[in-house]
Amino acid sequence: MASVAAAAVSVPSFSGLKAETKAAPARLSSTSVVRMAPVVRASASSDALKTVGKALLAASSSLLLVASANAATVKMGGDDGALGFYPKDISVAAGESVTFVNNKGFPHNVVFDEDAVPAGVKTEDINHEDYLNGPNESFSITFKTPGTYEFYCEPHQGAGMKGVVTVS
Predict the structure, then answer these.
(1) What is the spatial distance between Cα 168 and Cα 158, in angstroms, rounded to a whole number?
(2) Residue 108 and residue 102 in contact, taking contact as beta carbons nearer than 8 Å
């Protein structure tokens, strides 16, 4: 006949226990550490600030002069390769410059129609008849006399590559 054995297991109960929350006292060291801020002479600091300020003023003044002297940039040829000046109508103040930049590498130039510039302006002084053949080749023209200046690209005039500069 079979026999059955029973085993008894005792499980301790943890109900009602509380964790102690006291912290151990901190230990103090007899070694002291003193941190000091760096010493800066006020005159050296203000001299440096004055120098930086002058440099910033000079740089910003130079940028303003360049920005006002070069009033417009005209791409010769479109980003998609189209023949044209972009923009084709430009307005600037007298004494300002327009920079023409060859955009895609076709041979381009800028020729002013002698019958379509203000009286007294010599087109040979402002024409750029030499071809710009490579991308990003450029030249600038400063317009001194107020009025309307019509220009074109000599090899692409028949394709409508024309523009107008209005100087006030």
Answers:
(1) 29
(2) yes
Architecture of domain 70-167: Sandwich (2.60)
The structural domains of the chain, with segments of one domain joined by +, span 70-167
pLDDT given at position 84: 96
Judge whether 1 counts as a catalytic residue. no
The span from the CA of 103 to the CA of 41, in Å, is: 54
Is there a catalytic annotation at residue 156?
Answer: yes
What's the DSSP call for residue 103?
A: S
Q: In the chain, where do the E strands start and end?
A: 70-76, 85-86, 89-92, 97-102, 108-112, 128-132, 138-142, 147-152, 162-167
pLDDT in tens, 35-60: 555 554 545 455 655 655 555 444 44
Query: Is 108 part of the annotated catalytic residue set?
Result: yes
